[in-house]
Amino acid sequence: MMCRSRKRPRTIARTDRSSHSARSHTKMTSSGRLRQAEIPMLMSEQADVPLGEVDPEIVRIRRIGKRLFDVANCIVTLGSTAPDSSSAGALSASIETAFCYSVPLSGEPVVVTDTRNDQMLARHRLVVGAPYVRFYAAHPIYNQDRVLIGAVNLIDYAPRIFRDSDRQMLADLAALVEREMQVRSMSALQLDLQRKNKSLRRKSLIDPLIGTWNRGAIMRILTIEAIRCDKAGAPLSLIVADLDYFKKINDTYGHPAGDAVLVKVASRLRSCIRPQEALGRYGGEEFLVVLPGSSINTAMAVAERMRRAIASQPEAIGDTTLNLTISAGIASTDLFPSATTEELISRADVALYAAKDAGRNCVMRAQPDLS
């Protein structure tokens, strides 16, 4: 019968184990075959890590347990399913792990000093057959919610005594595993919290309707790029683009239709810029494009590409086809080398109004004489 922590196990002398270890030094018979009694010892020497067990902290604890108790192996089982036996590993580790998982998980410490005298394990196939497990002990592992999740298991191939001090050390070893699992759980919670915070932060910077940077984010990007370009001696250009006659679209077809148009316009504008450039919603139907390292001529080319992308493809609202256009104003440190970001936006706004006055669907650059 299995011995529990409150029942003192029957004492088995260790002379059997000692003679077994001594015999295992002679690994081959005269015929060159391994002695059957030596198979468990050799298999244990081939690998310390059970099949599928690759966690370095758990491996370290297992190694401590194996040396501390001087057993063939110390195995940590988690859950009710053994690791996948298809992965690379020693045969002994697979068999020993399978044995530990085959023993029902108990919420109390278990000590079997001689498996052949235990009611449940005496007929186990790995007890009556190779590798002939003779000693087994286990201490339960609980998670931080006091849910039973596994056990620290000791296996040997000879009966042995297991004193109260051994029980305490096995409990201490299980506590180390529990602490490691708690630390890991806390780390996972922290990583999850960081991911959620990062996601929330990103959401706070994205316009919820059209998916571009919102006003606060695009202004921050403009400030950062202005400082970077100034230090690098590179130009900085920006585009302020406005969808023509957008109010008429909202008034005629309703705000949902206007929102759908904005989403499509934003998508086309985004397709006209490079990854290092930024597009943001500056106002209702107004967009701000930040072009770090771009000259005024490059910015004009980008704005013209945007204008053509919008004008070249009409949008359908119900049975109606709308010919959309944008007007754009450009400002650059090429022409305003000492301008602040606010002054650049103001200059681009003036150029935008000039484009509106010129009949819309056109691009204008800010000039020092424009005011």
TrEMBL record:
One of its GO terms (molecular function) is diguanylate cyclase activity. InterPro entries: Diguanylate_Cyclase (IPR050469), GAF (IPR003018), GAF-like_dom_sf (IPR029016), GGDEF_dom (IPR000160), Nucleotide_cyclase (IPR029787), Rev_trsase/Diguanyl_cyclase (IPR043128). It is an enzyme of class 2 (transferase). Its EC number is 2.7.7.65. One of its GO terms (cellular component) is plasma membrane. Residues 1-11 have a biased composition (Basic residues). SMART domains: GGDEF. It comes from the Bacteria. Residues 234-368 form the GGDEF domain. One of its GO terms (biological process) is negative regulation of bacterial-type flagellum-dependent cell motility. Residues 1-36 are annotated as: Disordered. This is diguanylate cyclase. It comes from Noviherbaspirillum cavernae.
